[in-house]
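Human: Can I borrow your eye for a moment on a structure tokenisation matter? Separate attempts, laid side by side, tell us more than any discussion would. Could you pick a protein and write out its sequence and tokenised fold? No explanation is needed for now; the record alone will do.

Assistant:
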Amino acid sequence: MTITKKIFITGLTASTLILLSMGLFSFFKKSSTTQQTSSDPYKDSSTNLIYNLLFCDNLELYKDKTQQPYTYPFDILFAETTSVPDLQKIINDTASDPRLKVLAYNRQLASGHKPDKKELLAVIVEVGLDGGLDVLASFNNGTARYINQTGKILVLETTTDDKANELTKDLFLKGQDIVNQIGPWDKARKPHPTKGNVRITFLVSDGLYFGEGPMNVLFNDALANPALKVATQLMQFLTEKSLQQDK
């Protein structure tokens, strides 16, 4: 699907750029002040930033875009030395954003601590298309981000949309079925999938899990198909909802 509608939001603060807590739906005004690198999927640097923030595997990206002095939970996350119990406070906080919980889990893992439970916090689907990379990121609190192959960004920040919550719950049930049958990736995140390939990534308390393959193979795979089908429904819901709001 190609989004041609142009809606721009200006005046974003650094923390807004990270948490995208701006209401229901938004497209981001983009700038080209930073040159694209070979590993980035989009032409625009701000779109690449949002894309990389989705995976919560680079604490410095969050730190660089957060204003000082740091307050909770960033004072814990960004501290040079922090304790497992302090990080656990963020994880146990029901108000914590799922991305911040992933960051906290990752710091625990880096210190050698293994989580007590296997918690699925995000499902990210990347599809390499003719015009670029389509990305849907769904988080376990019902929020979502969709980056179209054109680089336009769509945000669902509410946690009270019944339809979105229904689709999210279904996606996470299907995603958990996959996580239960595969293991975590023990290397750095791979570059984005190329044209014709699909990757489904799971951000879990004990690491990053993923599956990847040609589009026609993965969408017909008995394990991957149910999750990919629901992810497609969620993406369609987000785009249709955004268009309805503008009428």
